[in-house]
Design a protein that fits this description.
globular, alpha/beta, single chain, Rossmann fold, nine-stranded mixed beta sheet, binds magnesium ion, binds threonylcarbamoyladenylate
Length: 321
């Protein structure tokens, strides 16, 4: 099935398509999602097909309000409640035991459902109009860079979906932090917009699941979030640029331009060391530089702290060299 993909701000049109078991792109504060009625197997199947995603990779269920969390999940622990109170709505995804109402295809047969209450006025308005939650992965083909503008979605998904609901550029810019529990201990399965220390302030010590071999959360797969152009992540920009001197290099830096290459071949992720700003600009910069006709993208590793750690995580998985 091919579509003439339209972009617009008509929320009622978005609702109508979703009610008809079609899939559409929606904005959230983290990245754009490819949304479908979470209770419709037919609609969910379309998501997997359009995204070219293996059905072994489950989808996050986006809900309109906290009361919905109790409709789709049960056995919600005290720690989970604390996280819900503190971070929802917001860029947090919680893995909780699923109720039967959630089709197995949404969780790829896993016992937990991933739940998120986004904080984006357009997403929230749409969700409130619906009488079902929205299952939505990021609106990019499997393995590629997540979209943070309607234009990014269009360039990656046009022809595959009927409608992109435009909500402007995503504020957070990287995906939600995914948290589950093992014997009531919080475990971070994907680093994201909320830092591990913010989580620890609420529920005490957390562990980070760094096992990239199991597919509990394929966003933690070793290779993911990748541009088509080879990407090298380095601590030593000067050495890397010299090593690949014969190649056409595009550079992603932060805070300031590097003196090593002409400025027109560089994108400064933010003339700042504020990692929230860098996260906001990251995927846009990656999309732009990926389309710049370079042989190689070299990226400066960021200070490995707070959101910087989440950004480095994405860049490590995006790197191919
Ligand atoms: O910020 C975000 O989380 C965005 C926006 C659109 O909400 N969504 C997003 O979805 O990043 P996606 O599908 O690209 O990444 C979700 C990750 C995947 O790695 C998936 O495997 C994992 O969450 N996941 C989803 N449901 C799960 C479940 N029931 N158990 C374990 N992992 C799950
Ligand atoms: Mg994704």
């Amino acid at each position: 099935m091919t579509f003439r993909t339209e972009t617009g701000t008509d929320i009622l049109r978005a609702k109508q398509l979703l009610d008809n078991e079609e899939i559409i792109a929606i904005p959230t504060e983290t990245v754009y999602g490819l949304a479908a009625n979470a209770f419709s197997e037919k609609a969910i199947n379309k998501v997997y097909t359009a995204k070219m995603r293996p059905i072994s990779n489950p989808l996050i269920v986006h809900v309109a309000g906290k009361k919905w969390i109790y409709e789709v999940a049960h056995e919600i622990s005290e720690k989970a409640e604390l996280l819900i109170e503190k971070f929802m709505p917001g860029p947090l995804t919680l893995l909780l035991p699923k109720k039967k109402i959630v089709p197995d295809i949404v969780t790829s047969g896993l016992p937990n459902v991933a739940i998120r209450l986004p904080a984006h006025p357009v997403a929230n308005k749409l969700l409130e109009l619906l009488d079902y939650p929205l299952a939505a992965p990021s609106a990019n083909p499997f393995g590629f860079i997540s979209p943070t503008t309607a234009e990014h979605v269009y360039s990656q998904m046009s022809g595959k979906i009927p409608f992109i609901l435009d909500g402007g550029k995503c504020t957070a810019g990287i995906e939600s932090t995914i948290i589950g529990f093992k014997n009531d201990m919080p475990v971070i399965y994907r680093l994201g917009s909320i830092t591990s220390s913010e989580i620890e302030d609420v529920v005490g010590p957390v562990t980070i699941n760094a096992d990239t071999t199991k597919t509990i959360a394929p966003g933690m797969l070793k290779k993911h979030y990748s541009p088509r152009t080879p990407l090298l992540l380095t601590q030593d920009l000067e050495q890397a640029v010299n090593k690949y001197a014969g190649k056409k290099i595009g550079l992603l830096t932060y805070n300031s331009y590097s003196p090593q290459l002409p400025e027109k071949h560089q994108i400064v992720l933010g003339k700042t060391t504020n990692m929230s700003v860098i996260a906001h600009n990251l995927y846009s910069a990656m999309h732009t530089i990926d389309n710049g006709g370079y042989d190689l993208i070299i990226v400066n590793k960021l200070p490995d702290d707070g959101i910087g750690k989440s950004i480095n995580d994405r860049l490590t998985r995006a790197s191919t060299l």
